[in-house]
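Priority: low. Protein: Enoyl-CoA hydratase. Input follows.
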Amino acid sequence: MNTFEYIERFIEDGVGVIQLNRPRQLNALNRKMIREIVTALEQFDQNDEVVSILVTGKGRAFSAGADIDEMAGNDSVQMELLNQFADWDRISLIKKPIIGAVKGFVFGGGFELALSLDILIAANGTQFSFPEVQLGVMPGAGGTQRLTKIVGRAKALEWVWTGDRIPAEMALRYGIINQIVSEELLMEESMKFAKRLAKQPPLSLRLIKDSINKAVDYSLYEGMQYERKNFYLLFSSQDQKEGMQAFIEKRKAEFRGR
Ligand code: CO8
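Result:
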C-alpha cells in the first residue's frame, strides 16, 4: 500500500494512520512531502474502511517546519508560480476527524500542519514554536490566523514575534492541544482515541466537524442556522433511524455511515 517517499500509511480498526517519515531531517516538510500527506488524507477521506485519521511523525520530532534548504533560494515570483499553498488549503476540506499525535519539535510549518488537524495529543516535553522570525520571514501556511483564533491577539503576537517555544503544558492551558501523555504512551493513547471515534456514526462525526468549524468564522446567528441544516440532514440517514431504534429497543446501535 506504501507508494510514497516521505510518508508511511496503514489502516487499523477504522483508523487511517499517516506517519511523516523523514526523521533524519526532523520531518522537515518539503513540497513533495506536503503533497503526499494531503493525497493520503484525501484517499483516507474517500475510503469507507476509514472513519477517523491519525497523523504522527517518526523519530524525535513531529516536524521542525518547512524544508529551509528547499525554499532558501526562492524569490517571490517563484513562490507565486509554485502556488504551494493550494496543497495546504486542501487539508481543511477533509471531512473526517483528524487526530494529530505530536512529540518533540512542532515548529513552523510543522506547527501549522498540526493546527490544521482537529484534535492534538502531545507527548510530555513537546515544544511548539513559530521560529520563522529568526529566518527573516513569518508563518505562511495559516499560523498567524489559526493561532490567533485559538489564543487571542496578545499571546499570538508575543509568540510569533519572539519565536519563543511553547511547552506542552502551556499549549494545553491555552487550548492549542487537547491532551498530554507520556512519550511511551503517545501512539497507544492516540490510537485509543482515534479508534473510539471510529466506532461513532461517521455521518454525525463529519457534520459535527463541519458545524464546529463554521463557528470559527460565522456569527452566532449564521452558525445556528448552519447547524440546524446539518441536524436536519442527519434525519435522512439510516444511522439516525438505527441509532434511535436501537435506543428504543434497548440494544447497541450498528452504525454504517449511511
Ligand atoms: N529544514 C531543513 N532541515 C532541517 C529543518 C528544517 N526546517 N529542521 C531541521 N533540519 C535538519 C537539520 O539541518 C539537521 O540536518 P543535518 O543532520 O543534515 O545537519 C537535522 O535536521 C537535525 O537537526 P539539528 O541537528 O538542527 O537538530 P537539533 O536537535 O540540534 O535542533 C531544531 C533541532 C531546534 C528543531 C533545529 O533543527 C532547528 O532550529 N530547525 C529549524 C526550525 C525552523 O526554523 N523551522 C521553521 C522553518 S520555516 C517554516 O516552517 C515556514 C513555514 C511556511 C509555510 C510552509 C511553506 C512550505
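The radius of gyration is 19 Å. Residues 25-26, 28, 64-69, 84, 105, 107-109, 112, 131-132, 135, 139-141 surround octanoyl-coenzyme A (CB under 6 Å).
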